[in-house]
Amino acid sequence: MTHPWQRTAQGANLLGPDGSLAVTIFEEITTLANRHGAINLGQGFPDEDGPAELSRIAQQAIAQGQNQYAPGKGILDLREAVSGHQQRFYGLTPDPETEVIITTGATEAIAAAILSLTGPGDEVLTFEPFYDSYGAMIGLSGATHTTAPLLAPDFMPDLAALERSFNPRTKMVIVNNPHNPTGAVFPESVLAEVVRLATKYDAVILTDEVYEHLTFGPRHIPVATLPGAAERTLTISSAGKTFSYTGWKIGWLSGPAELVAAARTVKQFLTYSSGTPFQSAIAAGLRMEDSFFTDAAATLQRKRDILSEGLRAAGMDVLTPQGTYFVNVDTVKLGITDATALARRLPELIGVAAIPVPVFCHPEGAYRTRSLLRFAFCKKEAVLEQAAERLATLAGKL
Ligand SMILES: Cc1ncc(COP(=O)(O)O)c(C=O)c1O
């Protein structure tokens, strides 16, 4: 018998060959990084706090007694701020009463959307590589996870393969834009094709846009702004990445009232409600001036460039990301064909840790990314410069 936890683990590639729970490569790399005092560029979280002003608002909220359950769908001020933010940046106007809910990070929004709308007999389509929580939640729902590949060097999908991946059983297609782990930012042409196919097969579009403000050149285009998309699209975002407060776990989900109500029904019994004192702080964050958002992207772009330069100098092909916290490299030029084996050696070899991209693929799709490694650059510039120095010694040590 297969238990739901096993389908969850299998969906995220966490089951060992004997069916037991495997140590995740993330845990393994973190353990190795700690053992060897390595700079850990495996983990996707900033090593500095976000705006002090937001921290002060959260602290005041605690001091003033905002410490009991928030309303299940989130405090009105934050739902209004989410709606106002979408209007300011994208011209979207979700109704804060019926078309927006606050969740415990994007993670809960992903879980609630998938578990409320898909189940056994359905197919849920994602790009591959894919962020692991999609595979885990599709597994828990009992649906079948299908994928369409993103291909290096620019990680754009082959649109013919995308079309072949849809069929009448496709209940949901998940878009992640900007895309983790590849750093791709999809142009309108790709998104329009997703909308056309989802409409043809009557699938819901779930779009995870947690890196919406972290793009380096291309403009972020929310799927929901495309013609014909809004009526079938649930959009997810989160405060973690934009405001560098990943530990506060405040996310949100917006879209047509009936789809949001479905997700809310499940969210109600996952956590009921989400971190009360953080909600007013994030409402203030979403109302910050445009310059905050453009400065955050510019700062991150500088970090991307520092690390990319180091990776290039180390002799790897840098697959320059257009968004997110992550840069991928192809290690084949160094004579490496198995990036997973290299990732296990890197902490001891040079004191830097990274994640092999095949962990974001199903075993049968992993061959496409066999020689790729993902490095996070959401770290202090001095840390990235030190990592670059260490990387420069790699070729000599292989
Ligand atoms: C693509 C993507 N979606 C969702 C999440 C999770 O967001 P949160 O911390 O708000 O749950 C992450 C975090 O790494 C992510 O990369």
Structural features, described:
The chain is an alpha/beta fold and 398 residues long. The protein is built from 15 helices and 14 strands. It has helices at 4-11, 25-35, 52-63, 76-90, 105-117, 132-141, 159-165, 188-200, 239-243, 257-270, 276-286, 290-313, 339-350, 381-391, 394-397; strands at 39-40, 100-104, 123-128, 144-151, 156-157, 170-176, 204-208, 233-238, 250-254, 317-319, 326-330, 352-353, 355-356, 372-376. The strands form 3 sheets. It has an 8-stranded mixed β-sheet with strand order 2-9-8-7-6-3-4-5, with helices on both faces. The chain has a 4-stranded antiparallel β-sheet with strand order 10-11-14-13. A two-stranded parallel sheet has the order 1-12. Helix 2 runs parallel beside helix 13 (339-350) and helix 12 (290-313) runs parallel beside helix 14. The longest helix is centred in the C-terminal third of the chain and has 24 residues, at 290-313. It starts with a helix and ends with a helix. The model has no long low-confidence stretch (mean pLDDT 96). It binds pyridoxal-5'-phosphate. The site of pyridoxal-5'-phosphate has 14 residues, from helix 5. Pyridoxal-5'-phosphate is lined by residues 44, 105-107, 131, 176, 180, 208, 210, 238, 240, 246, 249, 251.
